[in-house]
Amino acid sequence: MPLEKAALFGCAVATGVGAVVNTARVEPGSSVAVFGMGGVGLSAVMGARAAGAHPVIAVDVLGPKLRVAESAGATHAVDATGADPADAVREITDGGADYAFECVGNVDVFAQAYAATRVRGSTVCVGLDHPSRNLTIPCVSMVAEERTVRGSYMGSSVPARDIPRFMRMYDADALPVDLLHTHDIALDDINEAFDRLADGDAVRQIVRFDGG
Ligand SMILES: NC(=O)c1ccc[n+]([C@@H]2O[C@H](COP(=O)([O-])OP(=O)(O)OC[C@H]3O[C@@H](n4cnc5c(N)ncnc54)[C@H](O)[C@@H]3O)[C@@H](O)[C@H]2O)c1
User: pTM for this one?
Assistant: First the structure.
């Protein structure tokens, strides 16, 4: 595998696919909502699709990211700039998703992801907000509705086991990882690269030290 592809498996793919298949152990036929369509969330969408989930709902604030999510295997796209995205997920899933993944790094989005799950649903927190920010979980709904909240670090991956495994899934056309690699840049282009990320025009950009 070319190194610029392999690099994607070390963070985005291991974290997003691993959150689905290792941490949550999503079963075929389960419903999944993923909040945040960066490299991590798009990988979670790919993992959910590969795991046989349906529907697979992508949530983001940027239209271009939602279009990439559809190519990654999302069956539905929810624009989080409009109405409450948790309501949209509950409507699509007729009551709430079995699994929701927070892949933004924002405790307020975590609250939306939690609210988007069904009774006995699971919310997996992958994003990292500032260390001073705390998750707020409604106690009664967690207890009386037996909801589960889990953190997932690097997709609960064992690198020696999971990176080759995810590469075999890529070889089997089960993970369309190529769509994460949107640009090659030189280090001097780094500021434009951050602007592209903010605008939603890029997913993962490879810095090439041979000039881009
Ligand atoms: N748990 C881990 O082991 C682990 C590993 C790597 C990264 N992370 C964390 O995962 C998060 C995602 O990483 P990434 O590289 O994919 O980030 P990214 O910045 O590339 O993507 C974030 C996405 O979230 C979207 N977004 C922003 N606000 C939103 C909102 N209110 N609702 C819905 N979507 C929104 C953005 O448009 C963007 O598409 C970060 O917090 C990162 O620190 C965690």
Answer: 0.97
